[in-house]
Design a protein that fits this description.
The chain is built from 6 helices and 16 strands. With 279 residues, the protein is an alpha/beta fold.
């Protein structure tokens, strides 16, 4: 069987580990895989920024606290100094490596219906990692051309951005496994539907892009999390095969500012071993 046939069969759903298959190929050795290789190239659509560029600054003072418990997905009880507080967590992910009893977090004062603060970041591997997904779109917009529209409605669905024929969906990654950024950290039906919509738009002759924002600078490459959500991973690789562009931007939090730390790409073959270990 030739390589193109093997690739199409894997991506059609008859596959056990698309990561392992993709890692067998390189753009240099298999130039016929132009759709896959296209996702690895720099996109002219993204606005170039220098590493070290500040993309967002919090106006409020960021206060350190420790987690007491997480009674539900969006509420975290913390202890700040000697005071117990209830904070809003604007991230539906599991965040098991960031939000757990005793974990260090940064909070800001922000009044809600049942909370009086908001979780900004969690501490892991010697660094603060952003956990507030409300500002993902604002950060992403710093890398998109002037005139780009946000929250674009397409039928009953929405995508994050549109500019001319280009449609962009943004995903934020906080989870790292052995230096590899992975997404999602919890099953996401909505995320899978976004990718299906990108594939449909591409098939209709439009341009489409997956824009991954990685909020930690201790990562060297990216993989979709095929153990936590194999269906999302299947759609991801389907997007790649069909010419949907991919861009992965990396950031770090220093003081009150989120700073751009450059781009990373898809991982190599040897990195796929993380999915053969328990998460």
């Amino acid at each position: 069987m030739n390589s193109q046939y093997l690739l199409s069969r894997k991506l059609a759903g008859n596959w056990e580990s698309s990561v392992n298959l993709f890692a067998d190929f390189s753009c240099e050795s298999y130039l016929s895989l132009n759709l896959f290789c296209k996702a690895l190239k720099e996109s002219g659509f993204i606005v170039s920024r220098p590493e070290g560029h500040v993309v967002y600054t919090f106006d409020e003072e960021l206060l350190e606290a420790s987690v007491i418990e997480r009674p539900n997905r969006f509420v975290v009880s913390v202890r700040q100094d000697s005071r117990e507080r209830r904070c809003h967590l604007h991230d539906p992910g599991r965040l098991m490596e960031l939000i757990y009893p005793g974990a260090r977090v940064l909070i800001r004062n922000r009044k809600g219906e049942k909370t009086d603060c908001s979780i900004v970041a969690g501490f892991n591997n010697g660094r603060w990692i952003l956990t507030d997904s409300r500002i993902h779109s604002e950060i992403a917009s710093k890398f998109l051309p002037e005139g780009t529209k946000s929250e674009v409605k397409i039928g009953r669905k929405r995508l994050d951005f549109n500019n001319g024929k280009m449609y962009v969906e943004v995903k934020g990654s906080t989870l790292s496994m052995e230096g590899i950024s992975v997404f999602p950290d919890a099953p996401t039906v909505r995320g899978r539907e976004h990718l299906q919509l990108l594939r449909r738009l591409k098939a209709e002759g439009k341009s489409a892009m997956i824009l991954i924002l990685v909020f930690r600078d201790d990562t060297r490459c990216f993989l979709p999390n095929e153990i936590t959500d194999p269906e999302f991973s299947g759609e991801f690789y389907g997007c790649i095969e069909e010419g949907v562009e991919l861009k992965v931007l990396r950031f770090r939090l220093e003081g009150n500012s989120i700073i751009y730390s450059g781009t990373i790409g898809l991982c190599k073959r040897e990195d796929s071993r993380i999915f053969r270990n328990d998460q």
